[in-house]
Amino acid sequence: MHVVLVGPPGAGKGTQAQLIAARLQIPHVSTGDIFRENVSEMTELGQQAKTFMNAGDLVPDEITVAMVRDRLAKPDAHAGFILDGFPRTLVQAEQLQKTLAELDENLDVVLEMKPDDEELIRRLSGRRTCQGCGRIWHVVYDPTLVENRCDECGSGLSQRDDDQPETIRRRLQVYREQTEPLVGFYADLGLLAVIDAVGTVDQVTLRAVQALREALSA
Ligand code: ADP
Ligand code: AMP
Predict the structure, then answer these.
(1) What is the Å distance from ligand 1's center to 123 Cα?
(2) Active centre residues (catalytic)
């Protein structure tokens, strides 16, 4: 199963990707997570990515595409993958098609997740991420039992540096300008399935699973 999730920041891509990846036993590949790990480990890639990320801009295509190519060549990705946050530009989408062709693989479905802007801002400003297991939480929509402590692994939670009002606005603008055109690209390839991303996490998961089923049986 080769799945891409497309949608604006805060759509719930990471949340759904974690759930679907666990269900299908395939890796969840989040380019944002890989960049953040590199930033916190102060690698060369992290140094290159950091300024773009903090400004809410995209990391340049050549850096991002090379990173994803390496990740998808790893053995665990042979079983399939769920890509979250990649591709984000037409160049990246074209490069992904090329990489998959080299690996003799194809995309099965691209799920577009669509909530409204006000909901995105509410979701992003309350987002918290576990520093241990990476589980995504929300202070109101999906709170932990003990404040700032992950229910699943007990580690502390953190707020992303780019989840601040000004950067959120910039990221939404970048999405509209650079990423939204991918919807037409994948619709033309017959791969697009649109799901309503408003509703509880469980409701959205049901819609995503249904869309995946339909895509596989088509
Ligand atoms: P993305 O990966 O698309 O940027 P996330 O999955 O990180 O988005 O979700 C953003 C925030 O919204 C998180 O705090 C998450 O807990 C919360 N969230 C995700 N899905 C829902 C939902 N269906 N309803 C309410 N909050 C949600
Ligand atoms: P995300 O976790 O998907 O919200 O991504 C956080 C940040 O990482 C983005 O705002 C970008 O700066 C960078 N990033 C993640 N994925 C990509 C990508 N595919 N192309 C370029 N930049 C990316």
Answers:
(1) 6
(2) 13, 88, 127, 160, 171
Asked if 24 contacts 216 with a C-beta cutoff of 8 angstroms, the reply is no
pLDDT tens digits, one per residue of 9-64:
999 999 999 999 999 999 999 999 999 999 999 999 999 999 999 999 999 999 99
Number of H helices, E strands in the chain: 9, 8
Q: Produce one character per residue of 189-198: b if its CB has 16 or more CB atoms within 10 Å, e if not.
A: eebbbbbebe
- Please state, in angstroms and rounded to a whole number, the distance separating the CA atoms of residues 217 and 162: 39
Q: Whose alpha carbon is nearest atom 12 of ligand 1? A: 123
pLDDT of 108-156, one tens digit each? 999 999 888 889 999 999 999 999 999 999 999 999 999 999 999 999 9
Each residue of 105-128: b (16+ CB within 10 Å) or e? eebebbbbbebeeeebbebbbbbb
Distance 218 CA to ligand 2 centre (A): 31
Are the beta carbons of 83 and 29 closer than 8 angstroms? yes
Centre of ligand 1 from the C-alpha of residue 114, in Å: 12
> Which residue is closest in CA terms to ligand 2's atom 8?
32
CA atoms of 50 and 38, how far apart (whole Å):
9
